[in-house]
Amino acid sequence: MKASTVTGGDDRPSIRQLAAAVAFDVNRTVGGGHASIELLRRTFTSRGWLDADAHGLIVAVSRLTPGTNILAYCVTLGWRYHGWPGALAALLAASIPASLIVFLLTATLAQIDRYAVVRGLLAVGVLAAGVLVLASAWALIKPYLGRSARVQALLIAAVALGLIALDATPVRVLLVAAVIGFLRPTGAARR
Amino acid sequence: MSIVIVYLLLLKATATSFAGMGSLPQIRQDFVETYRFLSDDQLSQAVLVGRATPGPMGAYVVAVGYFAVGWPGAVAGWLAMISPALAAIPLLAAIQRWLHLARMRAAIDAVVIASAALLVAAGVRLLIDGSQQLVRLFLQT
Question: How far is the C-alpha of A84 from the C-alpha of A89, rounded, in Å?
Answer without folding.
Answer: 8
